[in-house]
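Query form — protein Vacuolar ATPase assembly integral membrane protein VMA21 homolog

QUESTION: What is the three-dimensional structure of this chain?
INPUT:
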Amino acid sequence: MAGVMQKFLVASMFMWMLPIAILYGFNNDLLPGSTTLSPHSLTLLSGFLAVVSVNVVIVFYICLALKEPVDKHKPDASFVAEAKDSVKKLTSAVPSTDPALKKQE
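ANSWER: The structure tokens for Vacuolar ATPase assembly integral membrane protein VMA21 homolog are given below.
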């Protein structure tokens, strides 16, 4: 579980830091070629790249999540039993007093 949380925290930090670094780099002329752009183009390009960077981090995080072994995480048996009992109680043939539910039937 600690590995999952660590991946989540690292991805969250990159989703904050990467767009801010891109915007800072463009606005302070740290990236090559950004000095030749008009202010309007500079704003559009930096904003677009910041959004793309967040999406790249999200895709990377999803890929990491999909590579997690499926059999690694087992649900708690007592929780599953309680959930099944709860569903059975809700779906049993107990007559409902709610008029909206009667109308749907």
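ADDITIONAL NOTE: Residues 23 and 46 are 6 Å apart (CA to CA).
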